[in-house]
Amino acid sequence: MTARAAEAAAGLSIAAVERDTGLAKDTLRVWERRYGFPQPVRDAYDERLYPPAQVERLRLIARLLGAGLRPGRVVPLPLEELQQLTQQAAPTDAAAPASPELQALLALVRGHDTLALRRTLNQNVMRLGLGRFLTEVLAPLNVQIGEAWMRGEIQVFEEHTYTESVVAVLRSALGSTAILPRPGMPRVLLATFPHESHVLGLLMAEVMLTLEGCECISLGAQTPVDEIVRAAAANRAQIVGLSFSPAFSPLLLLRDLQELRERLPAAVQLWAGGSHPALHRRAIEGVTTVRQLDEIATLLAPWRNAAA
User: Contact at 8 Å (CB) between 55 and 14?
Assistant: First the structure.
């Protein structure tokens, strides 16, 4: 066995676990202190290594957080109880049936036919237009992908491949449009906080905002609060939009949103979107929660009416 193979058998680094599960490094360290799990071993350089059995538990925990459960309830549980909870939390096919078109796309994801997946998505964009593609195909397809992941029918690498395919299709479609900002519509700065690497929701929001006539400046993923504040001032942003996946630390979400709200001018709106449960459990003062893509048009109505 090679040294690299032996290290892989011993466990994954904290960076690899973050990529695999979507759980932020800071979250893993906090759980280690607070709940006594995970319990990484140390390599020759005193760096954390997470054994395969612990990584499997973390994958299940990430799925349950995505279903809305709180860390305090699930992190201390053994593997068997996590598996039972995952089965209970997973939506049934009867509760959320997929259309034949979505079933065909899911089959391409499971069949690892990336070229056919991208070709079919592009065909849907051309057939429906970018706006309808977002709301009629991509949004429900994301739900189906998430539910399949909850049931263990899609692996982490398959979800990553799907995300990369969708990002490529949206970037290409957005780049080929000739949509110019409309007079009177706001300039929007988009980003995610550090430890939030998921960008699909952010990109979908960018596409919808662009279709509505906004000028969008995207900083991409994992941008510190200081840099968001500087970029908002430099670009004269009227809205700052952030996206959160379920695995993002709730404590960091609330803390960083409150800090960013305090540091932005009062006239700059702060929007937070995504499927994170914390955004739906409580209102955050000074922050507009965007639960669905189709809410964006309603939220932009004041600018649209003023321009008219």
Answer: no
